[in-house]
Amino acid sequence: MEIRDNGIGFDIKALNDGNGMFTMRERAAALNGNFDMDSEPQKGLPLCLPLNIEPTNISR
């Protein structure tokens, strides 16, 4: 899953890896995925959440 915005972005090197980023990484890991974020000033913010979802057979 990838989400992008067209906002002002920010310098990712200056990011304080606070509770919000920790929580997003933790939740992605719980879904057997990764959380990646890449931003630059004036370039918006793309968030990428690749998930490994196993197919299931559900009978009803």
How would you characterize the overall build of this protein?
Helices cover 20% and strands 13% of the residues. It is of the alpha+beta class and 60 residues long. It has one domain (2-48). Strand 2 (36-37) and strand 3 (46-48) form a beta hairpin. The longest helix is centred in the middle third of the chain and has 12 residues, at 19-30. The two termini are 28 Å apart. The mean pLDDT is 80.
Which key phrases capture this entry?
60 residues, alpha+beta, 1 helix, elongated
Strand ordering within the main sheet: 1-3-2
Low-confidence stretches: none
- Number of domain modules: 1
Query: Structural class of the helices, strands and pairings?
Result: alpha+beta
Arithmetic mean of pLDDT? 80
Rg, rounded, reads: 15 Å
Individual helix count: 1
- What's the count of strands? 3
* Main β-sheet description: 3 strands, antiparallel
Query: What distance lies between the first and last C-alpha atoms, to the nearest angstrom?
Result: 28 Å
Helix content: 10-25%
Name the shape in a single word: elongated
The ordered string of helix (H) and strand (E) elements is EHEE
Proportion of residues in extended strands: 5-15%
